[in-house]
UniProtKB/TrEMBL annotation:
Residues 19-228 form the Phosphate acetyl/butaryl transferase domain. The lineage of its organism: unclassified sequences, metagenomes, ecological metagenomes. The chain crosses the membrane at residues 199-218. Keywords: Acyltransferase, Membrane, Transferase, Transmembrane, Transmembrane helix. SUPFAM superfamilies: Isocitrate/Isopropylmalate dehydrogenase-like. It comes from marine sediment metagenome. One of its GO terms (molecular function) is acyltransferase activity. The keyword Transmembrane applies. This is Phosphate acetyl/butaryl transferase domain-containing protein.
Length: 230
């Protein structure tokens, strides 16, 4: 191998993904950084490298218009396509690990997001939020369902959160971790934050939890600063 590493080539995206995994398995790679390749194609290959039941993307961000710019986590805008209750448990556990290790928060406050803070029979994400909140979480305070504004804004809690109590009061307006109900909603929120970053209103970085080596998933339109932070 050359002093500064080895450069290899591939023609198709699937070949690029396969060769990436082969290099990791051979012990020749310390970090995988997604470049100009479709995320689903690379993800399918990378899942061969899983070391946890759930592999997920956790975005660390701060954005001036959200929670007064304090650092927060968002999951999962890029990996998890099927959000069963057990998979959602994995998302929470992975995000809590990142909050503890990167942000230094001993007992992160986790908001399970939905469109409403009340459990609605016709809105499955509210039922998921309730079920996750009822679980025992030794290393975090988890509550759901919560709407986005009630998760991040203490002013919104003051205006419309009079019915919240217990764990809800601990998380509402003070969430450290935002767990979206599906990849679609997480990805939309991710892209909104990305636009804020472009206008100098915040910063963010991504980390994928659950594979053999650090795997950085970035949007192909992310700026250089975001890539460096990741």
């Amino acid at each position: 191998m050359a002093e500064h590493g080895e450069v290899g080539g591939a023609v198709a995206a699937a070949e690029t993904a396969a060769r990436t995994v082969e290099c990791v398995e051979a012990g020749g790679v310390d970090l995988v950084l997604k470049g100009n390749i479709s995320t689903p194609i690379l993800n399918r290959a990378i899942l061969r490298l899983r070391v946890r039941d759930t592999v997920s993307l956790v975005t660390v961000f701060d954005a001036a218009p959200i929670a007064d710019g304090r650092p927060m986590l968002l999951t999962d805008p890029g990996v998890t396509t099927v959000c069963s209750e057990q998979r959602m448990v994995g998302l929470v556990e992975n995000a809590v690990d990142v909050a503890r290790s990167i942000l230094g928060i001993d007992r992160p406050r986790v908001a399970i997001l939905s469109a409403n803070e009340k459990v609605i029979e016709s809105l499955p994400s509210t039922q998921m939020g309730r079920n996750l909140a009822e679980r025992r979480w030794p290393d975090a305070v988890v509550y759901g369902p919560l709407s986005f504004d009630l998760a991040v804004s203490e002013e919104s809690v003051r205006l419309k959160g009079s019915s919240l109590a217990g764990a809800a009061r601990e998380v509402a307006g003070k969430a450290d971790v935002l767990v979206c109900p599906c990849l679609d909603s997480a990805n939309i929120l991710y892209k909104v934050i990305m636009e804020m970053v472009k206008y100098g209103l915040g910063t963010f970085a991504g980390v994928t939890v659950g594979v053999m080596v650090p795997y950085v998933i970035l949007s192909r339109s992310d700026n250089v600063e975001t890539k460096l932070h990741s």
